[in-house]
Structures are given as structure tokens and as C-alpha cells.
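Reviewer 2 asked us to include a model.

Predict the structure of this chain.
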Amino acid sequence: MNSTVEYTAPWVIAFQDGEHRLLRNGSIVVEGDTVVHVGRPGEVRADRTEHTNSIIAPGFISMHTHMQESPADKGIAEDMEKRQFWGTNLIEILPPRAKALTVDDMHACTRVSIAEHLRTGATTVMQMGVESDYVAKKCEEIGLRAFIGESYRSGEWYTADGKNVEYRWFDDDGRGAFESALNFALQHRNASGDALVTGFLNPSQVDTCSEELLRSTRAAADEHDLLMQIHAAQSYSEFHEMTRRHGRTPIEWLDDIGFLSERTLIGHGLFLTGTSWTNFHGDDLGLLSRSGTTVVYNPWVFARNGIVMESYDSYQREGVDVCLGTDTTTQSMLLSMRWASIITKVFEHRADAGEARDVFDAATVRAADVLRRPDLGRIQKGAKADLVFWKTDTLTMMPSRDPIRTIVYYAEHDDIDRVMVGGRFSLENDVVRGLDEMADRRALQEAAERIWEGWPQHDWANRTMDEHVPLSYPLFEQRG
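Predicted model (C-alpha cells):
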């Protein structure tokens, strides 16, 4: 029989009557991997009581991650004006970096990424990429809940001259990778919800997937009750390519072929009709809303390239559920919430846009509902014990009248004291369970240096890393 532990706290972000509620001087009782009581201290007998000085909150859910590669983007994906590709660095940065990563490099990135998500308050991620067996194994060992989709596509983009986006199509239309991805998803059906890993389907990008591959994906998702996430409306180069091919926007085309649905997530979904990005008439938001499709917004990653959602609140007003993700570096849901809120306020020119409570919902309960997991993203009886213990006595956390606004607008990553996933602490005493983080960071540094050194082998113009992405300042010259 599982022992029960009561945690008392000055604040608990509890869940009641369909929404988060602020519980003062409350308690949570955890038995095994489940919350069995939320309310006043001492109401339920526990084997042990721990009095904390924390804000106990539900863990964040990042709905868009690429953990096997993202840490390697740091320092090569910022401050670069890619006007030929309308501001995106997808075309010239991602292919060389992806080709340079070895399997060992991807494993090091995975371990660093798991630690980064836990240290920034995420207890669940939606992971897309390769090396999925390894990612699943490490998430289970360390303690991070993960929805994992092995990526597949019909072809890949590249540039041969730095001026045009071209496509290289695979002989089998990506069918082999699709079958492997479906196999992985079916092996991790997790019907009971008790396992840490759950599978889903990830056709990678709308412009790299054929109609046949996406129709097969939708059919498999319907047959086996699986979620799907695809990158779409993430750049103008993609938007332009899809309208060139089909005379339809990426969202219109996905609707035409029956891909949009309540089980579909659109990664990014920024370049839509009616936005200043496209100057293209249509009703993309209406199509997303009527089909029940979810958009996953990754605000920090795109804002650093000068690209924002126009706007988070407008999607919600049109009935489109918007969740948040971490995407590439930095993998922080705290930054995602904060930037989603601030960007929306700036775009809407009003302080009451992008409210803290709404972005907090997007990072917790709304994401859990999209994942069809009513036992995640909230603290209530019967929910999984996925909890973040926030310090209350630090410079950035004091004074705290409203813990939600404090977390969204002011908290720092170091304000997280402990992180629990499924009733077990994955982060405690500044240690992530089962990891040698310093060794992993050294492995990441070594991998990054090999990528930088070997950049000319994969760059279309054989440029060195410093030629392609110059340092912020020249190197200091030793003189005399």
C-alpha cells in the first residue's frame, strides 16, 4: 500500500468548479502518483506531513519540443537578418545543424533538455523528433511526462544558393518513416494514463508532406485514437510555397484534405490570412475554430526573430484554443507564458490583454484538456501529482499578493525549489534525479564546438560558422 504525504503551503493553486482557484494556507495529500486531497490541513490522515513555505502549483505542459536537438541552437539562431527567406532561420540554420548532430550528440541534447524543462517548471512535454526510444527511456528514468511523436515527412527543404527554397523528395514518400512512427505510437498507447510516455503522430511540416502521407496520418489517427501535430503557418516561405503549389493557404489546404480536426495540433500557426505577415484574404482562423484544431504558440523563439502572433487574444476570441510550447532554446515555459502575455499587450495596445491567468491556463489546464488528460495540469482530487514547489522568500517572489501574476511576470527559474512528477521528486535539493548534469553540459559544449567547426561541410556556400553567424564583437587582439 502506498504511503500518504501531506504538503502544507501558504498558497496552493488548486482546481475547483472548472478553473484554477487560489487556496490560502492549504494542503495537498499525495498517495502514490495521485493527489487524494486538496483543502484544509489535517482534514485527511496522512502517514507524514511536510510543512512547506511554497506556492504549490501544477506543473507546466510544453506542447511543442524538440529535445534531441534544441540546446545546440544556442548562439547560432539569434540576431540574423534572413530577408531572402522573410526572416526565418529555418532554411539556412536548421539543415546544417541537423546534419552535423551525431546520435551521441542527440542523446546529450536530450538529457540536457529534460533537465532544462524540469528546472523551468515543466512536468509534461510534447516531443517531436528522432531517437524517440532513447527520449522515452530517459523520460521514464528521470521522471518527465512525455507525449512523443517520431517525426516523418515526404521530403526536405534546402537552399543551394541562399536565394531560393528548394525541396528534395524521398523515393518512398516517407512511408517507411511513417510506419515506424505509427509503430512507436501504438507501442505507447498508454490507455490507462499511468505510464509516463504516450505516443502520437508527427508529420513534420506541411510543405514537406504529401497529401497522401497526411491522409494516411489522419486515417491512422482516427483508427487508433491518436493525436497529431504538424508544423504549419510557421514562415512566409512556407506560406508562399503552399499558395504557389495549390492556390491555397497552408490552413486552407489542410482543411481541403481533411486533416484539421479536434485531434489536430498546429505547431506555430502564425502566418494566417488576415495578418500583416501575409496580406492575403481568407478565413484561416474560422477554419481552425470550426474544426476544433488547436494552435501551439512558441512566443519566445519567434519573437527573437521579430515574428509574433497577431494576436494571442484574437485567436481566443475566434474560438481557437491556443496552448504554449518551448520549441527550441531556451526551453522555458516561464518565458513562453511571459512573452505570450507581453507581446499580446503590446500588439493590442492594452494592459488587460494577454492576462496572466489566461497564459497560465494555456500552460496547464488547457493543454491537459487538448491532450485529453483531465488528470493533468491541475491540482484536484484524482489528478496526477505533477507539482512545482515555488519559493516564496526570494527577491523576485516577494511581496506576493497574487501568486499567478508573481509567477508569470516576475519569477525566475531559480525560484523553483522542487518538481514532482507522478508523486516522485524529479528535481530536489538542486539535483535532477539520475543525471550527471555537469557531464551532460560538457558533452553538449563539445558537440556544439564540433558543429561550429564542421559548419562549412554542410553550408550551401561553405561558410565558416563565424562567416555565417558573426560573433557579437570581434575577438580581442593580443598586441605587443
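The two ends are 74 Å apart (CA to CA). The longest strand covers residues 4-16. We have added this to the supplementary material.
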